[in-house]
Amino acid sequence: MQGDKGKEFLPLVSKPWFFMTWVIRFFAVLLLLVMFLVILALPAIIGGQLLWFIIVGVLYYPVLGFLLYRFFLYQKKIRKRIIKKIVVDDKGVHYERADGTIDEVLYCNLKEYSFSDQYDVGVSPRNKQYMLKVNDGGHIADVDFDGMDAGYSYYFTNLSALRRRYIQGIVYFRPDLRINPFVFDVYYINPVDFTFDWKTYWSTLLKVGGVLALLTLGSAFLLYKLVS
After folding, report:
1. In what order do the strands lie in the sheet with 129-136?
2. Other beta carbons less than 10 A from residue 64's beta carbon
3. E strand or H helix that includes residue 225
4. Angle in degrees, 0-180, between the axes of helices 18-47 and 50-79, rounded to the nearest 10
5. Residue 112 gets which letter from DSSP?
6. What is the pLDDT of residues 12-55, one digit of tens each?
7. Are the beta carbons of 178 and 110 closer than 8 angstroms?
8. Dihedral of CA 30/31/36/39: which sign?
């Protein structure tokens, strides 16, 4: 039965959008350049007088040079770990990195929790977003499909579809695992056919937009009363 599902479960590969990738890279480099120029000119901005600028510069610029050196070493290190491709298949999710290594979160390695009141697959908040959380071989792991990791080198257009396919794989190949229903809600996944639930998405968006509009109008009205 699982073999039949494996044949039906075709691999899904990440699709990079090279135009957006280069746009993001351009503005990232531009932002770093502006920050570097501001940091470089900081002693002159604060000091004002030439003597004070020289005294501060003698201590400031060597430290700045050391920090920049450490920053470039860090960038060189993570450039080797950037993710070039993501594949979700009947085995799990595979992250192909620039140095040739592959990180995986396989279905067969997912474990159940020993507590009966705890779900085996859930979500955890990070940077105002939700990350898919699993028990990978006894270790809690966040399965990243949001591109939040600094190691991402490309802008992928189908990260949401990759996440849905991975969750679908858990349902197909690991029916013993208990998935928190909130997982389907927070990612707007139809639990029947694992498509994106546009109806719920737009309904939620309109509700949030309506609340924000009411708060804005209420604040504007209150401000108008206070001024008048």
Report:
1. 122-126, 129-136, 139-143
2. 16
3. helix 198-227
4. 160
5. -
6. 999 888 887 788 778 878 888 888 888 877 777 666 666 666 76
7. no
8. positive
CA 72 to centroid of chain Cα atoms: 23
> In the predicted model, is pLDDT for residue 91 greater than 70?
yes
Q: Are 100 and 110 within 8 A, CB to CB?
A: no
Cβ proximity of 133 and 124 under 8 Å: yes
pLDDT value of position 128: 75
Tokens 């990440």 map to which residue? 14
Residue 129 structure tokens: 């977003």
Amino acid code (one letter) for 215: L
Query: What angle (nearest 5°) sits at the alpha carbon of residue 149, between those of residues 79 and 180?
Result: 150
* Predicted confidence (pLDDT) at residue 152 exceeds the cutoff of 70: no
Q: Say how far apart CA 59 and CA 38 lie, in whole Å.
A: 17
